[in-house]
Q: What sequence folds into this?
């Protein structure tokens, strides 16, 4: 690991000033950053430790019914908050389907949003990677790319964003509060992550010094609590990143879908909101045919970036399954195997 | 530049001067305190052999910078027994052959202790397997590990019932 300076600011303003310097990055739990630094993938000159800043670890309901989640709330504390899990069950299920219990205890809300891709060529410093080193090329294009993007990719980069948490969040119109050099601003989570285009080295819309201080769920996000699921296909039942995932949330009134929300994970460099699919569900009965049509719409623009055409059909099927399970109703308790598309059978070995 | 931190490790306060901010909690425990029960497996947060409790919560000590944890209360495998009396989870691992080579065992036991405190899995084997998935065992002693955790959980439930009766 390259040597770095360590700074522990006392206030958010001090943190922003310290992190605005070239070569500086924020340190929260470090569960992704330290891994990247150990591998020489990230080589920061300065770590600005925000873990001791006060006031960023609260979960609070605002006067208008929004929920505000501080950026330093741990993934586990958020998922296990009983009120949170009841109001936003798909988000809690997504959180619990990610990483391991140890990592969820440490990893923060803000850090989860800003985790880097798990593309093996990004991690391998002997490979060419436009995201790690702008203009060096992309070895994933002709390499092992069966888990790579099928939506929004470019010739420069076919990496995916690995977060589970972000997928239901983007479906529920989450907003990100950012403290920067020019003060406080907020953007839709959907605008935070960037598609690669010709500049895959830039993952997000954040500028130097920008610090995510909170994530907010608007009042309408609670309206889906009784019909919301997150489903995630992975290569082992637990402790694995998504090959494909989907968050589905429905508001059902008088037997019809009053409003639908759908987002996909593991398919693009950002959590992928599927608005065209949402539109075809509005006002119709929640039937298998309607869900098939929605799945078709969600993947209309998909194209393989390598040996991954299977992901397009897999994504369609996981969309149908997630919508079907959401329509059946949110389970009273998050399943033993969170987000698993496989039925839980008592006594089965999943080790 | 030197940084001073203090930690409580297995109940005792320890002060350190770090001349390098790159030291992880794992390396600090092993190299500075010679508490080598906490194992370095992958050193990348994938295997769980380095699991310790920090402020009562299980984490991977390989992905935690010591300098960032100034003031933390740390429990390692060396601190769970009371003298010669094993922690119930330790005793249950022996009773159920919850290990073979033993390298992952301190992490498994610390993870199980943390999991029981989290109280999410209860006595459901499937939830226990899911909640222990951050600890890999290359010998494949998983069946014994789950049995050991079930027994320790049953013992804890029983003593809680006695206490509330």
A:
């Amino acid at each position: 690991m390259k040597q770095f300076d360590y700074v522990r600011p006392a206030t958010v303003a001090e943190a922003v000033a310290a992190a605005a310097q070239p070569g500086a990055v924020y340190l929260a739990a470090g569960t992704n950053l330290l891994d990247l630094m150990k591998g020489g993938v990230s080589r920061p000159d300065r770590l600005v430790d925000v873990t001791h800043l006060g006031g960023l670890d609260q979960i609070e309901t605002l006067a208008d019914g929004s929920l505000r989640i501080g950026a330093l709330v741990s993934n586990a504390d958020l998922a296990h908050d009983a009120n949170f899990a009841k109001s936003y069950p798909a988000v809690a299920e997504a959180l619990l389907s990610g990483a391991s219990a140890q990592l969820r205890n440490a990893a923060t809300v803000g850090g989860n949003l800003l985790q880097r891709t798990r593309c093996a060529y990004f991690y391998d410093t002997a490979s060419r990677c436009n995201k790690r080193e702008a203009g060096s090329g992309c070895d994933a294009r002709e390499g092992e790319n069966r888990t790579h993007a099928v939506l929004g990719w470019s010739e420069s980069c076919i990496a995916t964003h690995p977060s589970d948490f972000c997928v239901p969040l983007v479906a529920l119109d989450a907003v990100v509060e950012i403290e920067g050099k020019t003060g406080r601003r907020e953007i839709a989570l959907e605008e935070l992550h960037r598609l690669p285009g010709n500049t895959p080295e830039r993952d997000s819309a954040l500028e130097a010094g920008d610090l995510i201080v909170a994530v907010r769920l608007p009042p309408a996000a609670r309206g889906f609590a009784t019909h919301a699921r997150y489903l995630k296909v992975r290569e082992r039942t637990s402790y694995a990143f998504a090959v494909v995932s989907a968050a589905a949330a429905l508001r059902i009134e008088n037997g019809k879908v009053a409003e639908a929300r759908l987002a996909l994970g593991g398919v693009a460099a950002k959590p992928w909101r599927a608005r065209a699919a949402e539109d075809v569900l509005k006002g119709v009965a929640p039937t298998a045919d309607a869900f098939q049509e929605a799945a078709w719409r969600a993947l209309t623009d998909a194209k393989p970036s390598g040996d991954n055409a299977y992901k397009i059909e897999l994504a369609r099927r996981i969309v149908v399954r997630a919508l079907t399970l959401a329509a059946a109703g949110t389970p009273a308790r998050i399943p033993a195997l969170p987000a698993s598309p496989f039925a839980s059978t008592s006594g089965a070995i999943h080790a | 530049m030197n940084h001073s931190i203090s930690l409580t490790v297995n109940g005792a306060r320890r002060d350190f001067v770090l001349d390098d901010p790159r030291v992880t909690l794992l390396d600090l425990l092993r190299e500075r305190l010679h508490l080598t029960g906490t194992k370095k497996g992958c050193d990348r947060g994938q295997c769980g052999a380095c699991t310790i409790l920090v402020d009562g919560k299980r984490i991977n000590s390989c992905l935690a910078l010591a300098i960032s944890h100034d003031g933390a209360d740390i429990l390692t495998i060396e601190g769970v027994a009371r003298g010669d009396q094993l922690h119930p989870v330790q005793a249950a691992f022996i009773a159920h052959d919850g290990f073979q080579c033993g390298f992952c065992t301190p992490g498994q036991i610390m993870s199980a202790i943390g999991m029981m405190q989290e109280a999410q899995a209860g006595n459901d084997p499937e939830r226990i397997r899911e909640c222990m998935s951050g600890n890999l065992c290359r010998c494949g002693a998983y069946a014994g590990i789950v049995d050991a955790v079930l027994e320790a959980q049953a013992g804890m439930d029983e003593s809680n019932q006695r206490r509330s009766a």
